[in-house]
Amino acid sequence: MSTDSTLTTFHLFPTLPIEIRLKIWSLNLSVPRAITILCNKDFIKGSAPGTVRTAKSWTTDTPSPPLLVVNRESRYEALTVYAPYFTTLSCPRPIYLSFSQDTLKFADGVLPYIPRTYLLEIQKIVLDTKDCAYFGFYHMETLKNMKRLREFAIYGERGAVVRGNDGNRYLHFLITDFEEAIDADPDWEYPTVRIFNGQTGKEERVIEGRAKFPEEEPPEE
Q1: What is the domain range of residue 185?
Q2: Predicted confidence (pLDDT) per residue in 73-95, tens digit
Q3: Alpha-carbon distance 89 to 79, whole Å?
């Protein structure tokens, strides 16, 4: 006789009251995920001299939420949380995401390829950067325009500009970029920023997300 008491199938689930079934679906759908998304880049000739950058396809190793395919009821509930994103003409298969609870991970060079409508919705993001010295120059304005961004983490590597044995000083490029951007724009409601050493994974700095100068409440009449 098998001693394995793990329950893998519950045949009576369809007979449960609908309120209980919906509660179970809801609990399963509330689990946050960390999803790495890769971009297959492409360049097309524009009408003006030069080329236009575009994303040929987006891929991830993270499976789609399983409740999308269990049955009709679970799929209906799953689609209240997850929506299809990152489709292209050459790759129409979507990546199902919940921007309110999923953390998305990209290489920083992918930011210009992410559709602007998505950038306005993303709330949690992790970036890998190969060059701390130029991150702020190329990407800080993009981050400032991500109005719903609440949590931001970045893993920085030394890059080609920084040479020699300078310890973690190259990470100060990132820290300085964020501090200067915050000081220059008091109205920016910036996200919580976590800066990590990309080689060791050690967290080097945390900048708590908040308005630099919170607006004062109007006096009561």
Answers
A1: 99-207
A2: 999 999 999 999 999 999 999 99
A3: 23
